[in-house]
Amino acid sequence: MAAPQDVHVRICNQEIVKFDLEVKALIQDIRDCSGPLSELTELNTKVKEKFQQLRCRIQDLEQSAREQDKESEKQLLLQEVENHKKQMLSNQTSWRKANLTCKIAIDNLEKAELMQGGDLLRQRKTTKESLAQTSSTITESLMGISRMMSQQVQQSEEAMQTLVSSSRTLLDANEEFKSMSGTIQLGRKLITKYNRRELTDKLLIFLALALFLATVLYIVKKRLFPFL
């Protein structure tokens, strides 16, 4: 059965390896970080916590090594502790380099954004000028359309007045036509009546002439042929 001290040493080594891998992963995250600065700060905070846990476990392992009864085991563990310390120092160096690389990248990105912001401002200015010119052109076009519509309305009013005048003329002509139609009908009636009266007069004249001739014949007969 393993002694409790050996179990403690094994647990310390396992946790040291685990914290070392976590530190390396966080350092890689810092290398890959492109900002913002708050994200870098958060990653550095996590790295500090992992370094603190790693340092505590290395100190526990060193304490366990010094408590070993056998000198050989003691020296072996102290050598492991020294290796872990060197690896931690190497991780700290990599951490500083990663921070430097990340900060340079963030600075370059911020400069690029500032330059792009200047370009955007110029572009916005150009866009505003273009929009103002377009708006002026549209306003002129609308004013031209308004003038054309005003002319069309005026022409429509004149056409409407002409139509009203023509309508009145037609109505007057229609009234005159109705009046003339009545006059023509009256004249026709008078002519018909006159024709009838003329026929009656002719008939009366013919009857009167026949009566006159009959009277003359009667008188001549009485004088020439009294015996008859």
TrEMBL record:
Transmembrane segments: 203-220
Cellular component GO terms held in the UniProt record: endoplasmic reticulum membrane; mitochondrial outer membrane; nuclear envelope; SNARE complex
Membrane-related topology note: Single-pass type IV membrane protein
Key words, A-Z: Coiled coil, Endoplasmic reticulum, ER-Golgi transport, Membrane, Transmembrane, Transmembrane helix, Transport
GO molecular function: calcium-induced calcium release activity; SNAP receptor activity
Coiled-coil zones: 37-87
Predominant cellular place of this UniProt entry's protein: endoplasmic reticulum
Residues of the Sec20 C-terminal domain: 134-224
Similarity field: Belongs to the SEC20 family.
Name listed for the protein in its UniProt record: Vesicle transport protein SEC20
Organism field: Mesocricetus auratus (Golden hamster)
Lineage: Eukaryota, Metazoa, Chordata, Craniata, Vertebrata
Name of the encoding gene: Bnip1
